[in-house]
Design brief:
The complex is a heterotetramer of chains A (466), B (457), C (167) and D (243). With 167 residues, chain C is α+β, with helices and mostly antiparallel strands. In chain C, 44% of the residues lie in helices and 14% in strands. Chain D has 243 residues and is of the alpha+beta class. Chain D is built from 7 helices and 10 strands. Chain D has a single domain, classed as Alpha-Beta Plaits (2-Layer Sandwich). The chains are: A mainly alpha (466), B mainly alpha (457), C alpha+beta (167), D alpha+beta (243).
Chain lengths: 466, 457, 167, 243
């Protein structure tokens, strides 16, 4: 009788059991050291797709060359897409680290590993920079327009500064990844009885842990800044300043936000894949998706908000240039892409995540995330392809006429395919080579969690070290 | 480090209800002072109604001045409440507990006061209700395309919402007052408590309601200041206003000044009511950390706004920035805005010693709000002073005694309202504090005990 | 039917005696707990209270949205004046007003829902004691007059400080 | 909305080349439209209200300095920025292409003035006042605006209506030149020209395709109904000739 009452009373706490830390380590290492053969197959498949994309780029390079900017809109779009999905994932985890959210732990490593993708993305950006005009006599944030003589001229704008900005972001990401990886590498080596030079560099002394903690905090802050700055530069210099008269102060913020949204979606999807195919039901469960779904919902709302902020001003202002812009990037030649982006970045995810019952499932957030990824791609499409197709005329700082729609040709399709499979390929490689779950963070988390009997119910206790 | 204090519930009641049961002489003295200032403001407004807005310093082209500056300022302050209590509630941040009610109260009161400003500002204040769709008899309607019609919708939605939010969260504390008072007061509180008993059901609903209302109020809170921003940003007629980033820039600025306002208020409460056990350094520190982030994001937005406005290097824009940055007295205001609003407080907050120091935080938080007031002024007036492309009718502006006294009156009205509220209701939610004590726990790791939290998903 | 209210100094004792009550076959429908602060659900072994609070905001939102549509469309049709070359039905402007009124409806409905779901206002809520807000835990029981003595002894045995009975 | 028998679209053409900056239009407007006197005090407070004003710009350095005059009045834009921001429809567009202000409806938010790029709207800061006796010269066809509301150039709408009524009485349609706003009527150098642009054989529709034609701040896309004709600068013409 008593027991029955007790079980009833504790039904509404759907706590999964707290696994002892060492048990988890054993579990994970067993999984990590002998991966499934299907993993290798997948790696090969996606590797092929990725290389197809690279081949596409080469073909374009040798057939049409770099003369005409409008040929390369799709590469720019896919690069932006990679930058604001894979590129922004580390931001998600460092934000969660900052507020000491426990549910970040299983996904921390995945998120950080995505900074490897940015390394490849960077090379695309280098290629694109050949297409970007210098900002001399051009109205951009570099203040190089006609009024400025040789006196106020800044050399190598914008190319040099874009490179610096994005390089800083890449390095910060790699640093973040490596710093949090070291303890786990040592763990793997111990397991494999492998004697690697890294063993000497990491022994796990208290001092080293303290340094690692501080280092993660510092690199986190650094990445935060560089990441915002990199996105800002990219979306201004490789998109906005190509359209004369497009002056939209919120655009960088909007792109950063869409980056954070894409990053979060990427993390959630990877989390789902890891749970589904990696078989980590014991460590990744509904609570994680539930917790992740709330910020995701917030980003969806913010996406609409930032979009609307720009839209209402242009719509109300009714200046000719504003009308042209609305045509160019929203309701004109790329309206289909825009409508897809709108519904996939805001409308549908919002309608899905609105319901707590859906948020509290393992499948709900991933579905929304998948939609968001698609939406993010089309969003970049309508922004970049359109702005790359504009013929710029330095004399009058306005759009002369709205260019026609540019549809992807075969090489573009190859590039898009490659672009989509690139992050997957790299992540699969990571899974193969490094521990894909941050073991030390997981164990720390498990140590800080316990179940306690409170009066007649059972509660989970989470430690929050200051 | 969190220093945990455990107190018996009875003592919590006695401490936090101090305000309602004892009234020191200085308290009444302050209230009298504020009441007098407010009365003076009322007189000034009456004078303006009687003589016409000519008695203000407004002119062509500066048609909007102190009143709207103050309007934006108070709307901004009103964003403290939801920002803190809602976001921190949703994030389940423990340190929110003593701050929520104060923040929400600040929201409600400052929003009420800010809603008065457009009326001061109208040419014919006795027709303030005309933007509402009420006129069925004559079939004359407002123009829904006007931002000034969006404004009342947003502000009243926010006002009603946050007021209900405060009331709902008050019910359990009113029940405590009901049990502690006698006679008429008991009847009064008893009526307000609506027969609250504290059954598990009622508590559960109370908690769920907290989350639900927070979730509903957050989007409203963003929209309110955005719409206030659009009052300016839809303008193509005024230099420096037609900027797409205005809405989020205003919102984050509002949060910046609002949270600082809450810090000021909390410190004052601690000093006034000796609530050292409830408002502790850990709360101060967390608020300061939050402020660093907010302020930095705000500064990034400001940077974008400035760069994007200026980079075309159009003569009119240059003239505007020149006025803002180099022309007396605007350059002084700009200096105050930059240094008080960001450059002095934020670097100071980086030091743990400052974050945990009451006096330092008090001063810095007030500095922020002075800076933010100047920011609003610098957005409105210089833009209008360099309004048209033809420099033939550029102008300048100095406020008259009427405007100054009305602004001062609004500040004192806020203080008056807060002090009155503090006499009737507790400014720190009792049950929230008690719950915090029930849920706090510890985890032993080796030799160290880590402060922990009992959670129920 | 009689009502009785037992007051306990500590939550532990209260939890103990609810357990005892369950043992004595008094169900959760008959006994209830009164506290001065929220406790984790099921702390006293009470059933998870059912509620439909989440329905209210959606109903309210629908009402609000309808009102907004009536206002915006109505005013613009009833008074079709061209301003600034904007269309008579300006969707973006209507969106903003619709949004605000939708939220307003949702919030008001939610608050009504809260009052309804927590069963207030209710002046005749039942037996109560002022010590509860001072930290005492109260356990109320509704039972036949006959049972009173047995229950009283049971509650006393589990450390009830004071027991109030209303016939 | 004002219903008129025949569709009209009023336009004004201002020939800057003819303008001598004599301020006659300003004065005429003042007298016609019951605008209170602009005292020194009002000018010093920069609160003077001139529905049409002559903007004077100096060009070049002394001694060879040029004065340039530009009469600016409400441009009666087709996409008037001042209209949609009014919460109470006090400013709206009537079917004769004019941007009209409803004094009784105005509540004095002054938003329209902020959003007018031409700075052509005026606020009544005080109750209007005329010296003893001067109130007898007020125009009975024009409202005296009370304090706290906006006002602006109306293209002398009272004259337009009067002309229409007279035409009705005489049982004829309005002919070109029936209607002349005070400023146009009083311009000694005929720099101002007013008329119905829908009437193909009116003087104004003939001048509409003048090579010197331009509108103020056309990058804002407000489509003004007041059209300016460029100044003919002899020196510049010579320079061009030499090239």
């Amino acid at each position: 009788m008593l027991r029955r009452r007790h079980t009833i009373s504790s039904t509404h706490h759907s706590h999964p059991p707290v696994v002892p830390a060492n048990e988890f380590v054993a579990d994970f290492m067993a999984w990590h050291t002998k991966p499934k053969p299907s993993l290798n197959k997948a790696i090969i498949a996606f590797g092929l797709l990725t290389s197809l994309g690279l081949i596409g780029i080469l073909i374009k390079l040798f057939t049409v060359g770099l003369e005409n900017r409008s040929d390369w809109g799709y590469l720019a779009a896919i690069t932006a897409f990679l930058l604001s999905t894979a590129g922004c994932t580390p931001f998600v985890v460092l934000g969660l680290r900052m507020i000491k959210a426990h549910w970040r732990r299983p996904i921390a490593r995945i998120a950080e590993s995505y900074s490897l993708v940015t390394v490849v993305t960077f090379s695309f950006i280098l290629l694109l920079l050949f297409l970007i005009p210098s900002s001399q006599n051009r109205r951009t944030i570099w203040f190089q327009n006609d009024h400025v003589g040789t006196v106020g001229a800044i050399p190598f704008t914008p190319h040099l500064y874009v490179i610096i900005g994005i390089l800083a972001m890449v390095l910060a990401g790699l640093g973040l990844w490596w710093t949090s990886l070291r303890p786990d590498i040592r763990l793997v080596n111990n397991l494999k009885k492998a004697d690697k030079p890294t063993n000497k560099s990491w022994v796990g002394s208290l001092k080293q842990w303290r340094v690692q903690n501080k280092g993660l905090a510092f690199l986190g802050a650094f990445f935060f800044m560089t990441f915002i700055w990199a996105i800002t530069l990219y979306c201004i210099d490789l998109c906005m300043s190509l359209v004369p008269g497009w002056r939209d102060a919120i655009f960088p913020v909007y792109q950063t936000l869409s980056g954070i949204q894409g990053g979060l979606a990427t993390v959630i999807l990877s989390m789902y894949v890891l749970r589904r195919f990696g078989g980590f039901e014991k460590y990744i469960f509904m609570e994680h998706f539930w917790a992740a779904s709330k910020p995701l919902l917030a980003t969806c709302l913010l996406w609409f908000y930032f979009w609307f902020c720009a839209f209402i001003i242009f719509w109300y202002g009714r200046m000719p240039i504003e009308q042209d812009l609305l045509q160019l990037i929203m309701f004109g030649p790329y309206n289909i892409a825009f409508y897809i982006a709108f519904s996939c970045c805001f409308l549908l995810p919002f309608l899905i995540l609105l319901w707590n019952t859906v948020r509290k499932t393992v499948w709900g957030p991933p579905v929304a995330s998948a939609l968001i990824i698609v939406g993010c791609f089309f969003d970049k499409l309508r922004l970049y392809v359109s702005s790359y197709s504009v013929q710029d005329d330095l004399a009058l700082h306005a759009i002369t006429e709205i260019p026609a729609t540019i549809l992807p040709n075969i090489t573009d399709i190859l590039i898009i395919m490659g672009g989509f499979s690139l992050p997957i390929f790299i992540m699969l490689l990571c899974t193969r080579l490094f521990p894909i779950m941050s073991v030390w963070e997981m164990t720390e988390g498990l140590r800080l969690t316990k179940m306690t009997k409170f009066l007649r119910t059972e509660l989970r206790v989470l430690g929050k070290p200051e | 480090m969190q220093e945990r204090v455990f107190l018996p519930n009875k003592q919590i009641n006695d401490d936090l209800l101090k305000g309602s049961f004892e009234t020191p002489w200085w308290y009444l003295a302050w209230m009298a002072l504020f009441a007098a200032l407010t009365a003076w403001g009322v007189f000034a407004f009456g004078y303006a109604i009687n003589k016409g807005l000519g008695v203000t310093g407004l002119n062509r082209p500066i048609m909007w001045g102190f009143f709207l500056t103050d309007f934006i300022f108070w709307v901004g302050i009103s964003h403290a409440g939801v920002m803190l209590s809602a976001i921190l509630r949703l994030a389940k941040a423990e340190w929110r507990r003593p701050a929520t009610r104060a923040a929400e109260l600040l929201t409600v009161l400052s929003l009420m006061v800010s809603a008065l400003h457009p009326i001061f500002h109208l040419g014919r204040p006795w027709r303030f209700y005309w933007p509402f769709p009420y006129d069925f008899s004559r079939g004359i309607w407002p123009d829904v395309r006007s931002p000034l019609v969006w404004d009342p919708h947003a502000i009243f939605t926010y006002l009603i919402g946050s007021t209900l939010f405060v009331i709902i969260a008050l019910i359990p504390d009113i029940a405590v007052l009901r049990d502690k008072t006698k006679g008429v007061a008991k009847v009064f509180y008893g009526a307000l408590a609506m027969g609250w008993r504290g059954t598990p059901r009622q508590w559960k609903i109370q908690i769920v309601a907290g989350f639900l209302l927070s979730g509903l109020l957050l989007p409203v809170f963003v929209s309110v200041h955005s719409i206030v921003a659009w009052d300016f940003a839809v303008n193509i007629g005024t230099e420096g206003w037609h900027v797409t980033i205005f809405a989020p820039y205003f919102v984050i600025g509002a949060v910046h000044s609002g949270v600082s306002g809450v810090v000021t208020m909390l410190i004052l409460l601690k000093w006034m009511f000796k609530w050292d056990d409830y408002i502790r350094q850990e709360h101060l520190e967390s608020l300061a950390k939050l402020l660093i982030v907010i302020a930095t994001v705000w500064f990034y937005f400001f940077f974008l706004e400035f760069i994007f406005a200026l980079y075309n290097l159009e003569d009119q824009e240059i003239a505007l920035r020149e006025l803002q940055a180099f022309t007396w007295p605007y350059n002084l205001i700009a200096f105050v805005f930059l240094f008080f609003g960001y450059l002095i407080p934020v670097p100071l907050w980086l030091f743990r010693r400052v974050r945990r120091n009451w006096v330092a935080m008090f001063i810095t938080s007030i500095m922020v709000n002075i800076g933010m007031w100047c920011e609003r002024f610098l957005i409105i007036v210089p833009g209008l002073a360099r309004k048209t492309n033809f420099n033939f009718s550029w102008g300048s502006y100095t406020p008259s005694w009427v405007e100054i006294s009305i602004v001062v009156a609004c500040f004192s009205l806020i203080f008056l309202l807060i002090m009155t509220f503090a006499k009737v209701f507790p400014l720190i939610p009792l049950f929230d504090i008690k719950e915090g004590q029930t849920l706090s726990d510890e985890i032993q790791i080796g030799k160290r005990t880590v402060p922990a939290l009992r959670v129920e998903e | 039917m009689a009502q009785m209210l037992a007051l306990y100094k500590t939550a532990e004792l209260a939890a103990q005696s609810t357990e005892a009550l369950d043992g004595a076959g008094v169900t959760n429908e008959e006994w209830d707990v009164l506290t001065d602060a929220p406790y984790p659900e099921g702390a006293f072994g009470e059933k998870d209270p059912e509620h439909k609070l989440y329905v209210f905001p959606f109903m309210g939102a629908c009402i609000g949205f309808t009102l907004a549509m009536i206002e915006t469309i109505g005013t613009q049709t009833a008074y079709p004046l061209v301003t600034g070359g904007k269309p008579i039905f300006s969707m973006p402007a209507m969106t903003i007003i619709a949004y605000e009124l939708t939220m307003l409806g949702a919030i008001i409905a939610t608050v009504l829902g809260i009052l309804f779901e927590s069963r207030i206002p209710n002046p005749f809520a039942g037996i109560y004691d002022e010590r509860i807000t001072e930290g005492y835990i109260g356990i109320t029981i509704i039972c036949e007059e006959g049972k009173i003595e047995s229950l009283e002894t049971l509650l006393k045995a589990n450390g009830a400080e004071d027991i109030i009975i209303e016939k | 909305m004002v219903q008129t028998p025949k569709a009209k679209k009023w336009k004004m053409i201002i020939d800057i080349d003819k303008c001598t900056g004599c301020q006659a239009c300003v004065l005429a407007c003042q007298a016609e439209n019951n605008i209170p006197f602009n005292t020194d005090a009002l000018f010093n407070q920069s609160r003077a209200s001139e529905w049409i004003r002559i903007e004077r710009y100096w060009e070049g350095e002394f001694p060879d300095v040029k004065a340039k005059f530009m009469p600016v009045l409400c441009q009666h834009c087709n996409n008037a920025p001042c209209e949609p921001v009014c919460p109470v429809y006090a400013a709206y567009h009537n079917d004769q292409g004019m941007n009209v202000q409803v004094y009784n409806r105005c509540i004095g938010t002054r938003f329209c003035q902020n959003n007018c790029p031409y700075h052509a709207r005026f606020f009544n800061w005080f109750e209007p006042y005329w010296p003893e006796g001067m109130e007898n010269q007020l125009n009975p066809d024009v409202t005296v605006r009370s304090r706290g509301i906006m006002e602006k150039c109306t293209f002398c709408v009272q004259r337009i209506r009067r002309a229409e009524i007279d035409a009705d009485i005489e049982g004829r349609a309005n002919v070109d030149g029936d209607v002349n706003p005070a400023c146009v009527q009083s311009c000694p150098s005929n720099a101002l020209l007013f008329g119905d642009s829908l009437d193909p054989d009116s003087r104004i529709s003939k001048k509409l395709d003048d090579a010197r034609k331009h509108t103020l701040l056309d990058h804002l896309g407000t489509e003004p109904n007041v059209i300016y004709l460029k100044k003919v600068d002899e020196e510049y013409v010579e320079k061009e000739a030499h090239h």
